[in-house]
Design brief:
Helices cover about 50% and strands about 0% of the residues. The chain is built from four helices and no strands. It starts with a helix and ends with a helix. The protein binds heme C.
Length: about 130
Amino acid sequence: MLKLRGAVALFGLSVFTHGAMADAELDDRMIKLASNAGCFTCHSVESGKPGPNGLAPIGPAWQDVGARYHGQPKAKDALLRAVMDGTSLYASHWKNKISGIAMPPNAVAIKEADAKKLVAWILNLKK
Ligand code: HEC
């Protein structure tokens, strides 16, 4: 019986560490992807970071993006389009919270399939 409990505990532990490792690995991959695509010129992952010269950040922190849209059924597609095609100068979603006005299209810098993965990851970020 004792032996069995040990095996169960060990199994539980391995599932847990495997999950944590998979998360860290995903974070790493997504950060590399974003960094290669130049996203961090305007965005930070972490909420509350200032932008250049102490101004508001140019684009919203991705933790804030996750907090705002997580669980909204249309968010994945809408954000993917925003990333690939850019956003409207006349309908800023983050007015008064950032110093940028609109996001330029990123289709030159990132493949749509990669942007899709990045958006899914951003939507799951928590503060
Ligand atoms: C030149 C600056 C710049 C770059 C580079 C940039 N962004 Fe943005 N991004 C912005 C700005 C500004 C906004 C806010 C747009 C708004 O208020 O509607 C934004 C908004 C977003 C949003 C939220 C859109 C919404 O509708 O709320 C996501 C997601 C996003 N960016 C992801 C990315 C990803 C992924 C990359 C890299 C492939 C990237 N951005 C590169 C400036 C940038």
